[in-house]
Request: fold
Amino acid sequence: MSTISSDFRAENLQKFSELSTPFTPARSEVLSHRSQIKKLSQSLSSLNCSWQIVKTTQDAVHNHFQGAINENTVSHFLAELDNLIRVFPVNYSDCDRLRNLINILLEHQIEYLWYRDFPVYADALAVEADEALWDLRSTKGNYHINFGFTILREDFFNKLINPCKRKIRAIINHPAQGTVGMKTAKCKPEILALLNEINEEINQRIVQPHRLQINSILRTVDHQKHLASLGYWAPPTSSHTTGYAVDIEQEWYWQKDQTLFKQIQTVLNKYYQAGIINLIDERKVWHICLNPLFREFYQQLSQNWLRDCDATLKRSPR
Reply:
């Protein structure tokens, strides 16, 4: 692993503790928001009527969520809540599902505040036009990719064999057996560096090295709309559309390897508590999002790894 000054990381952690702007709430405000989410979640757990759950949530957001959840974010949350129950009635009819999605939506508001003014990737053309993105498919030899992922290939031939691939993953008990794969196989260098670092820290805690299964990184607005048309709750304002969010497989680890599950959870919580990422338990996946204050740190880390790989390739016999 490339080394980078621990002072730089400490400096960013200090920024997160002290800095408060409309786009980067201070750590104390983020912690307050999370505390309020926990209290609301406890209140909702005793309600068994969807109408009461929604009304209690609306009142709480209007009256109690302060700090990181400002007036603009409240309006955004309420619009997303309306979309959650109006466009997808099944979310309203199942109280347990409704409570879980409300909690996820509240957790997402931090990311909305972080990245609401960042450019999004509207479609595949926007992804192709961004030369700063790293392609996970074609350039593995040029930089480290420590984690695992599956690509969704949609040409005519692969559409025929994709179901077979999924069956094979199930037969061999692969962590990717529950995902169709990434439609967009490009990501920002800082996200690749973050995931590499997380994977390395997990491997330091286990006996047998493991490549953490990553299900999704960058998703375009068009893709979000397509997922919504299939019945998934996939808001176009998701931080996936900026390229700074990641979905990590969770269900397979929970069902197949409890020891590994706990180590992954421990490492992710460590990054979450440090303020480096937002972390949301979406049951099937862990959703993480990089705090924008740490973009520069992981950009530098990615460049260090890239230089190390270049040096290794130059030293290798031809």
